Amino acid sequence: MADEKLRIVNTVCPRNCYSGCGMQIHLKGDKIIKVKGNENNPATRGKICLKGLSYPQMIDHPDRLLYPLKRTGARGTSQFERITWDEAMDLVYDHFKPMVENYGPESILYYVGSGNHGSIMQQYAYGFWYQLGGFTGTRGNLCDSAATEAIRYTFGAIKNSALTEIEHTELIILWGKNPSFTNMHSMYHIHKALEKGAKMVTIDPRLNESSNRSDLHLYPRCGTDGLLAIGVAKCMINKGLVDGDFINKHVLGYEAYKTMLDDYSMEEIARLTEVSVEAIQQLVDMMAAVKKFTIILGKGYQRYSNGGQTTRAICALPVIAGAIGKRGVGLYFNDSQRPMQKWSYYPPKPQHIRTTLNMGKLAEIDHMQEPPIKGMWIEAANPMTSNPNRHKLEKVLHGLDYMVCAEHFLTDTAKMADLVLPAAMFLEENDIIRSYGHSYLQLKQKVMACPGEVKTDKEIYHMLGKRFGFDMAYLPEDDATILRQVISASGYATTLEEMKETPYLFPEYDAIAYANKIFPTESGKIELYAESLQRDWGVHPLPIYVEPSESKYSNPEGFKKYPLQFMTAHAKERINSQFTQPDWLSEMVEPEMHIHTKDALARKIRNGDRVRVFNQRGEIYVKALVGEAVQSGTVNVFEGWYDHTHASVNKLTEDRATDFGHGAAFHNCLVEVEKVNGP
């Protein structure tokens, strides 16, 4: 080791995260000496989070899967034996080939998540699946598809201004957003704005970790953010905070929208949202006192059955104020200002591809017929932890004939599989990475060899293609050739060699979103009234409010038994169920539940007590944190806990879809809490 030369390799974190942090890996041989941020990415500025710092422990963790495993005991009991890769490929062939022949290729569910958020190599898989003749896939996602669709139908594109533009605003509204945990790089610019004298408002049912410098905090009842936005709009119009010239030139449906607002009284809005009229007016007064305001959106507020319309209602606020397309104003959600990559290795697309299954309603495979689902392939995903209604899903997965999981660790999902394939981690493979917090494309360089018998996803599919006798021209081997071809075909004005040193930002990038006032909707305008939304999804063309499912008003009988709204916010130490392995991260926290003092007193719960959180779907056990961190009537447990912790939150959630976008309505969930002594 002492004689080995130090190597420094540029790469990028590929996790499903806003940041897509540029990284430098310092190595001697194949041993990581240090991980640090790379300053070559202006968006991330050389900063990385705790999770990024833990990668060396993840890669070398003693529990990491290093060779293929075949199930020997009952499904879910973690009883496996080591086998060779040749045996593993034979098992896939021997089970999947008859399924295709007897039932059709749609009898196999290809379930791919975003655990590794690569942009290019994920397309490689279709060189296998298309040649198999088809598959059943999923639509929507567990994260943000309701809001993404809402923004697309409203503005025509998914983009926001550069993070640096936050520094030029005078009022920041964090709406359901906790960037200290989920988008740390934006906090730098938020603090810069505050240092220049900007004010900040937080809208969130919980006192989140980013709101300590807020001048105002509004605590809406869970799922009522859209109604709150309607109340804010009514006060804005009454206050004269409307840009008539902008509306006349660039907005469709304002008059219909304004008429819709008359259907809601401020008193009813205050009663249902549990935010006083005075507090709403205080927010609007703060908006009136400045020339520029910026709304930064999170994800949780749209994970309700009314999530799409909620997003459209919030989007309307900067629109009616004309706070679009100018410096220091606008709406931050996702930034996708980049041309899509063009994959050059697709076989002819087969007809037998079925994508009618919502990702958030995975247990519905039990109802799929013509053909039924017999087999399942899972990669970059852990649905037994991340998907709603765990008990229902577990029962359905037990009924599958054969299940394959490509993974790094023996996760709750991998334990259910018949065959577990050890997959490479990000430092062991090449790819190009895109983020959704900025628009830079970055090269993820392979910096070390795979340990043991671990294979990259590309290598796994290449072996499968050979075993099935497929045309290997669609499953090429050389990474550099593949990436150079994609860069060229996609029209990126860069090279593979340049990307090793510098992230790529395409020349037409708009640092100020919509500065050109081009809105690629059907009308060419911002659509507050969207006929296409009604046509495509069967929902109202205006952003009306609909009470969320499973609330005190929509389900009063259920509320009598389970009178607390259950939230599952994102944790600082994890990305969904990832990063549970590094000991120094897991030792920082334990499963905890925030509960309001009033609700705790009513249940004789004291700070630090062990409590049972339960409803008709299941139960979990956590430690109670009593205080004012959440609104009364609400409890919060950070998501991502594995089953062995007794705190897997999706034992309590229902598998419901959002109003449009095929999103997952996790937060439509009522529970009760009681003090216990175990487990």
TrEMBL record:
<dbReference type="Pfam" id="PF01568">
    <property type="entry name" value="Molydop_binding"/>
</dbReference>
<dbReference type="GO" id="GO:0051536">
    <property type="term" value="F:iron-sulfur cluster binding"/>
</dbReference>
<keyword id="KW-0411">Iron-sulfur</keyword>
<dbReference type="InterPro" id="IPR006963">
    <property type="entry name" value="Mopterin_OxRdtase_4Fe-4S_dom"/>
</dbReference>
<dbReference type="GO" id="GO:0043546">
    <property type="term" value="F:molybdopterin cofactor binding"/>
</dbReference>
<feature type="domain" description="4Fe-4S Mo/W bis-MGD-type">
    <location>
        <begin position="6"/>
        <end position="63"/>
    </location>
</feature>
<dbReference type="Pfam" id="PF00384">
    <property type="entry name" value="Molybdopterin"/>
</dbReference>
<dbReference type="InterPro" id="IPR009010">
    <property type="entry name" value="Asp_de-COase-like_dom_sf"/>
</dbReference>
<dbReference type="Pfam" id="PF04879">
    <property type="entry name" value="Molybdop_Fe4S4"/>
</dbReference>
<protein>
    <submittedName>
        <fullName>Molybdopterin-dependent oxidoreductase</fullName>
    </submittedName>
</protein>
<dbReference type="InterPro" id="IPR006656">
    <property type="entry name" value="Mopterin_OxRdtase"/>
</dbReference>
<keyword id="KW-0408">Iron</keyword>
<dbReference type="GO" id="GO:0046872">
    <property type="term" value="F:metal ion binding"/>
</dbReference>
<comment type="similarity">
    <text>Belongs to the prokaryotic molybdopterin-containing oxidoreductase family.</text>
</comment>
<dbReference type="GO" id="GO:0016491">
    <property type="term" value="F:oxidoreductase activity"/>
</dbReference>
<dbReference type="InterPro" id="IPR006657">
    <property type="entry name" value="MoPterin_dinucl-bd_dom"/>
</dbReference>
<keyword id="KW-0479">Metal-binding</keyword>
<dbReference type="InterPro" id="IPR050612">
    <property type="entry name" value="Prok_Mopterin_Oxidored"/>
</dbReference>
